[in-house]
Amino acid sequence: MNLSPLRGRLPILGADEKKELSAEFQAQLQSYRQRNFVQVRDSQFDLPEFSSPIRILARVLGAPIVAAPELQGALGTLLRDYEESIRAAPWVDPRCVVIEAVLLRSHDDQTERVHVGEITRAANVILKVRGEAVQLEAKEVGGILRQLGLSPMRDRKGFAIRLNESIRRHIHQLASRFAVATVQEGTVLCAHCAEFVPFEPRNEGRVASME
Fold this sequence. Notes:
Elements: H1 15-41, H2 52-62, H3 69-73, H4 75-88, H5 94-106, E1 113-115, H6 116-129, H7 138-147, E2 153-155, E3 158-162, H8 165-177, H9 181-184, H10 191-196
Antiparallel strand pairs: 1-3, 2-3
């Protein structure tokens, strides 16, 4: 809820004021519910252009708005901004960027293992390209990998993840679950991508064919 800025101190409501406000608005809400129960129950309001979770949210928020088409229609703009913010979040989230970095290396069939230092450098390049000044440390990346079930083991060059088929599949599962940027783009680069990249109408035509 947006409030106009106040020059003075914010008012503090006492118990009596809270009860008065509650009684006033509760009565109005109850009256609205009684008058519009059937219309809300039978509402056909829908915004099919959104992905499933946002579409459901739109129906939940839009159905109770009765006889106010302009207000109902404004939901589209609000939810579009909300959806964009959700989709943008994985682009700079450290966990998502680390998953994306190790996902890129997992597509190299010639790579049998990838070191934490390599993953850290790749993740920092991704962050830099996306305009983020924050840089990750190898120790932090190692901790993120362990939290994700990708436990690096020490070898002669440091800590590394062995990229067998089971681990590659797990990496793709993580990429799908966290909706990292590569998955959002709908790019298919291997059999695991074909299994885990979500197919939605908006991605149709953008999914590359497998070689």
